[in-house]
Amino acid sequence: MIDAVNRQNGLGFIAHPFEKGSPLVFNNQNFCWSKWEISGFTGMEVWNWCSQWRDGVRSLPQGLYYAYLNPYGPISGPCPQSLARFDQISAQRRLVAIAGSDAHAWPIRRGLIRRTIFPYEFLFRTINNCLLLESPLSDKLTEAKQQVYGALRAGRSFIVNCRVADPAGFLFVAANDHREYPIGQTVPFTDNAFLQINCPHEFSGRVRHRIIHNGKLLDEIPGCNVSIRVTQPGTYRLEVYIQKKPWLFTNPIYFQTVSTQDGE
């Protein structure tokens, strides 16, 4: 199927690859992914809101508590196993991370209990994928589709938890020799390469940035405007937390050593 999608110039993402399931839903059945020897997919879903919520519900009383009183209880951020596998693969090849609300608006009918778990209006305001377009979104459907698909294919996107804060004003770019490179780009690694992070000043004192290099925590820095010198080639992505709540997770920026040949 992955090969067939690629032949049609399509995009394929592995969905909720480490889903665990719940005894209250589909009799604990899960829909995880285990064929990691297969390659060719565009990316993978590192955070699935509904799967994480369902995985965290282990009993009926717990489910009622989360459904009526604490709908964010089981939500902790991207799946650690998915992030680890994403980092492992993206260190070897380009890979795109996405989030999914997995909206189904489940109708619960158990005796006198009547409840819709996560109506669409709720879920669409939780985690989303912010796309970085090279030009304003076209009002022509065909062109707009290509802009959206192009940004997804290139990894010019980041995940935002809209329940924490709006992403307006956020910036994560690489710079090299007075040129800027957005998320998803490959950057020549030189002595003056660096990363720039900007967040709205209203988050001053509450925001913390975690720079991940080749799957390992490189640095953890507070502050709204941060510059980090890049001293090694490799894959760099960013995680941002506001008061310890998971807010933003970017796709990687790839720094590659520039090779030259004599006479060039």
- Rg, rounded, reads 20 Å
Q: Tell me, what's the shape? A: globular
- Strand percentage lies at 25-35%
- The N- and C-terminal alpha carbons lie at a distance of 43 Å
Biggest sheet layout: 8 strands, mixed
Which sequence of SSEs, written as H and E, runs from N to C?
HEEHHHEEEHEHEEEEEEEEEEE
Tally the structural domains: 2
Structural class: alpha+beta
Please provide the count of β strands.
17
Contiguous helical run count: 6
pLDDT average, as an integer? 90
What share of residues is helical?
10-25%
Question: What can you see in these coordinates?
Answer:
The protein is built from six helices and 17 strands. By secondary structure, it is an alpha+beta fold.
What features would you highlight for this structure?
single chain; 264 residues; alpha+beta; Immunoglobulin-like; 8-stranded mixed β-sheet; 6 helices; 17 strands; 19% helix; globular
Topology:
Elements: H1 2-7, E1 13-14, E2 43-48, H2 49-55, H3 60-68, H4 80-90, E3 96-100, E4 106-110, E5 113-117, H5 120-123, E6 127-131, H6 141-154, E7 157-161, E8 171-176, E9 179-181, E10 186-189, E11 194-198, E12 207-213, E13 216-222, E14 225-229, E15 234-242, E16 245-250, E17 253-257
Parallel strand pairs: 1-2, 2-3, 10-17
Antiparallel strand pairs: 4-5, 6-7, 7-16, 8-9, 8-11, 11-14, 12-13, 12-15, 15-16, 15-17
